[in-house]
Amino acid sequence: MLLITLGSALIYQFATDSFEVADQPAGTVYYTEVLDGRQNSYTRNHREPVQITPAAVDQFRGIVRQAYDYSCGSAALTTLLNGYAGTNLTEKQTMDGLLRYGEYARIIERRSFSLLDMKRFVTALGYSSGGYRAELKDLIALDKPVIVPIAYAGFKHFVVYKGHSEGRIYVADPALGNISFNADRFAEIWDNNTLFMIELADYQQTKNVLALSENDMRHVDDATVNKFAFVNLQYPEHKFEKLADNAATMRRVLDAVPNSTNYGNSTDTYMRMYYKRK
What we know:
alpha+beta, 2 domains, two-stranded antiparallel sheet
């Protein structure tokens, strides 16, 4: 028993000494490549740390997430000020400023902030700003992020317009993160075609965190999601593709073929259907 214990201790010591153990930044994983990928092998060709970012973190990249159901206005303004004007505010600091310089009684009454409240606070910070009416083509032509109100899912909501690419409008939503809309759909939900803009004299020297990036373009349309919703990698491609097509397009109807032995009874039918939200 003593020999077994000593042997286990030596094996553990050799195993731990063979790896470089050091503190690594959060999000670090180790990528290991074996010497021969065609067979199981403990001989490593190389082993190196790789930094990864969780999708949930990237979803809110550059966005100040709203802390309350009614605070989309303060969160959107904080996002615009931090990401575009280069400030370093918290949502609470912005809320305090909006309450101090805005129409306090009306804010309490409606439990939300207005574009006028935003203008007064931004003016107190020393920036020029204003609310405007515009057409979709005017919004697309802008070279800067702006706050836009939308009427979405039965609610009034503030988001930050980031940019336009290939027929899609990209916004920083303080509730949902970095999302996009089909341009036609955005035109439908854009509330009163209004926007709130901050004017910066040194815009060219300002680092715009809200500028569109490659990560913003990684959207998947509904047809693709439907096609691969039932993918299981243990099956060959033709197998799971057939299952997905059948499961996604199956419905039960009455058999209307007079010569069928099942005439007048329920039967399953498969139809290829594709749809895409606006």
